[in-house]
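Chain A, query sequence.
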Amino acid sequence: MGCIFDGCPHSFAAFAGFIHADDPTRGPEAETDAVLRLRFVDVSESGHSYSWNQMEYLIIIEWTALDRDGRTLWMQTVRGVGRGKQGTIFTTDRLHREVMQAAFDDVFNQSLKQVISSPELRSLAK
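Chain A, predicted structure.
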């Protein structure tokens, strides 16, 4: 089984193989069972710009799996959150990067859980 996996550089262990496609308009290849597409819905930051206040990064993405004919097989929206302290003028850049990385890690882990647990996608492996 193959899968065109566009929008993310990471491989999901749920698939036997994948083909990374930089062009989202590219159609499925002959050996491809499904196309898994990623769309960023929202990326936001909240918090106040006072030292040591809490800040939060939120990333919302939508996954869509399409069959060879372009029909939707599966769609899931996933949220990733990173939280931490705002910091001071000396620490704010480092702390922002850490919180942003935590949000990306969370959205990736949540995506992986959704893909692996999806009955629709699991049926493609049979």
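The first strand starts at residue 2 and ends at 6. The chain is about 25% helix and 40% strand.
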